[in-house]
C-alpha cells in the first residue's frame, strides 16, 4: 500500500486540506469534535478510491479532491452515528467522540458533516455525482436500520447479512468509484465497471473486518475481539459456522448472544463453534472471491499503473490483518 499512497500523495494531501478546511464553525464543539475524529488515524480508504478511480479514467484534479473529501465526511458522519447507536466507548483505539462529548453532540456533528458534504457537492460537482452520493447515503441508512432490526436474531440469514453490508459499506465504496468515473467524464461502460469494482471491494472489505472481529489482533484493529457479537451482530464467519453447527451448538450461540452480559466466557463459546466449522477461513474465501470479481471489472481498462494499483488494493484488502 505504501507505493500506492506515494503515487497519490499530492492528491490525498489536497483532499486532506479540504477535509480540514471545511469544519470551521462559530460553534466550538464542531471543529473540536471533527478534528478529533479526523486525527484519529483513519485510513482514508474511500478518498483514495475516489482519486484512484478518477485517475484510472484520466483525471487528476480539484474535483477529485472535493469528491474525496465528501466521501470522508459521509463516512465519518456514519461512524459518529454508529458509535451512539452501538454505545461504543472506543474508536480506533481511542475514546470515541460520544464518550468525550456525549451522544447528542456526536449525532449533531455527524449531521453537520453530512450537510457540509452536500454543500460541497452542490458547489463543485455535477448533478449525477450528487445523485450517486445521495443514493449511497440512503443505502447507508437502510443498511444500519436493517442491522439494528436483525440484532440478536439467530435466524439471520447470509442473504440478510449481504443486504446489511451492501447498505452500510459496499454502497458508499461503490459510489466513491462511480463518482471518480463521473468527474472524469465517463458515462458508459467504464463508469459501470468502476461501480461494480467498488461494490465487490466493499463486500470484501466488510467481510474481512468481520473476520477480524472474531480472530484479529486487538492491538492492530483498535477494538476488542467479539465487539460485533457483544452488540448482537451476526456476521458472516458466525453465520457460515452456524449453517453447519448442531442444534446444541446453535443453542449455545443463541444463549451467548442473549446473555444479560456478553463477556469473554460467552465469546469463547461462540468462537469455539466458529473455529470448529472454519467460519473465519470460509468467510475469508468469500472475500477473496469478491476481490477476484472486483479485478475482473477492471478488464475494460487499459494497462497502466492506475489499473495495477486498483488491482493491488483489492488484493490487499482481503489479506490485511488490521
Compact description:
75% of the residues lie in helices and 1% in strands. The protein is mostly helical and 322 residues long. The longest helix has 27 residues, at 189-215.
Structure write-up:
This protein has a single domain (2-319), classed as Orthogonal Bundle (Farnesyl Diphosphate Synthase). The model has no long low-confidence stretch (mean pLDDT 93). The longest helix is centred in the middle third of the chain and has 27 residues, at 189-215. β1 (90-91) and β2 (94-95) form a beta hairpin. With 322 residues, the chain is an all-alpha fold. The protein is globular. It has 17 helices and 2 strands. Strands 1-2 form a two-stranded antiparallel sheet. Helix content is 75%, strand content 1%. α4 runs antiparallel to α5 (62-85), α8 (127-150) runs antiparallel to α9 and α13 (236-242) crosses α15. It starts with a helix and ends with a helix.
Summarize the SSE layout with pairings.
Blueprint: H1 2-7, H2 9-21, H3 29-38, H4 45-56, H5 62-85, E1 90-91, E2 94-95, H6 97-101, H7 103-124, H8 127-150, H9 158-182, H10 189-215, H11 218-221, H12 227-230, H13 236-242, H14 247-257, H15 264-276, H16 279-297, H17 305-319
Antiparallel strand pairs: 1-2
The overall strand count is: 2
Radius of gyration: 20 Å
Strand order of the largest sheet: 1-2
Category by helix and strand content = mainly alpha
Residue stretches low in confidence (pLDDT < 50, at least 5 long) are none
CATH top level class name: Mainly Alpha
Query: Which series of helices and strands comes N to C?
Result: HHHHHEEHHHHHHHHHHHH
The chain-level mean pLDDT equals: 93
Number of domains: 1
CATH architecture: Orthogonal Bundle
Count of DSSP H/I helices: 17
Annotated CATH homologous superfamily:
Farnesyl Diphosphate Synthase
Give the CATH topology.
Farnesyl Diphosphate Synthase
Distance between the termini: 13 Å
Shape: globular
Strand content: under 5%
Q: What composes the largest sheet?
A: 2 strands, antiparallel
What is the helix fraction of residues, given as a range? over 70%
